[in-house]
Amino acid sequence: MSATEWLLATQLQAPSKLVPADTAFVVLALVVLLPAVRSWRSPAAWRRVGVRGAVAAAAVLVVLAVCWFLTDVVDLFGVALSPVTQMWIAFAAAGLALAVTGIVQGGRWRRVVAAVLVPATLVVPALGVNVEFAKYPTLATVVQSNPWPAYDPDAAPLDAMPAAGEVRTVDIPGTRSHFDARPAVVWLPPAALVRHPRPLPVVIAFSGQPGAPGDLFTAGHLAEPLDAYARAHDGRAPIVVSVDQLSAPGRNTMCVDSRLGHVATYVTRDVPAWIAANLPATSDRRAWGLTGFSQGATCAMQFTTGHPSEFGAALAVSSELQPNDQGPQHSADQAFGGSVARWEAAAPIAQMHANGLDGHALWLTAGSADREFSANARKLGTAARQAGATVSIETAPGSGHDWNTVRWSFRQDVGPLADALFTADR
């Protein structure tokens, strides 16, 4: 393994296994904060310590106030920042404040240490937030979100069934929608890779926002439970196609046809047409399902409830109650022609009331520490049962609105989702 390959494979989820980064960060901060040993009896030295401490404390209060304003008042991110994430942000603010005061007040050596503290305050809290959110397991996933080879529909089929499925990248054109989608990611089970494959169920998947189609495989590890299911079922498992419903990492299209793009037409017309033409997929749409995380889970619920004849089951991880971008009026202005009534009608619960969900199966999950989205799962589940669906509501222990919850949900529920789709295809 080359040095570059080792670096890209380096795990970011457990930085303390590589170097005691958090300990080094604390030591650097204390060196900048406290006076030199020879000055411990100097009142002037301790006054400087007081100034540094006051500046650091003020920085912490300011950033926590900003976090509160952006999440609780403006709702910029659509989710609340967890206490652990806010703690790391506060540490970063305190570290930068100490570094600035150390450079201004300190002598030569303290200024050197303060200068070293600056990158430490950026890297160590960032690693801490990453461990909490679990988005980037390795450096490779930071620099390359879609590392798989392109899907070749003309590739020769295999004579023997492989031990595991294959992940491929594919361009699915917006033939009817003209939606400018980024490349999708396809997982093909072993049974789809051999000669004359039997038709298989399909799952269309959506990542969160911000995000990209590959996130469900790099951060969500979706291939692992799929491969496990295939091993237990003679290589057969649903084909999974993770598609782009955003067109850009931070763009919330709310999964409807609007001036932001004709996403609904892309997902319900262009994507199924491409799958039917290129993959060994069943034509029975009761055996087609959906899954997604966060904004992607909301999309999965929207398409399940808005098109119940086209999708028979869904696994929604941390779904919103309805498509949302900074509140009702802003959401309406962005994607519903300014009509709050149209925005309300697009909510999954409203569509359940209008269309029903007889014979459908839903798995609704959220992190146990994610109170808002756990409540969403219960509300969606109650409405879905009333609409005729079979519903399972679960909470991932000890996690929040993060990829730990996604991985737990996939481990728990990909198998039951696949069972439901195969049952529907009989």
What does this structure look like?
This protein is α/β, with parallel strands linked by helices and about 425 residues long. The protein is built from 15 helices and ten strands. It has helices at about 5-10, 20-35, 45-75, 85-105, 110-135, 140-145, 215-220, 225-230, 265-280, 295-305, 330-335, 340-345, 350-355, 370-385, 405-425; strands at about 165-170, 185-190, 200-205, 240, 255-260, 260, 290-295, 315, 360-365, 390-395. The strands form two sheets. Strands 1-2-4-3-7-8-9-10 form an eight-stranded mixed beta sheet, with helices on both faces. The chain has a two-stranded antiparallel sheet with strand order 5-6. α2 packs across α4.
Write a concise keyword list for the protein shown above.
426 residues, alpha/beta, 8-stranded mixed beta sheet, 15 helices, disordered N terminus
Tell me briefly what this model is.
The chain is an alpha/beta fold and 426 residues long. 49% of the residues lie in helices and 11% in strands.
Write the layout of secondary structure elements.
Blueprint: H1 3-9, H2 21-33, H3 43-73, H4 83-105, H5 108-133, H6 139-143, E1 166-170, E2 184-188, E3 202-206, H7 215-218, H8 223-232, E4 239-242, E5 257-258, E6 261-262, H9 263-278, E7 288-293, H10 295-306, E8 313-317, H11 328-335, H12 340-345, H13 348-355, E9 361-367, H14 371-386, E10 390-396, H15 403-424
Parallel strand pairs: 3-4, 3-7, 7-8, 8-9, 9-10
Antiparallel strand pairs: 1-2, 2-4, 5-6
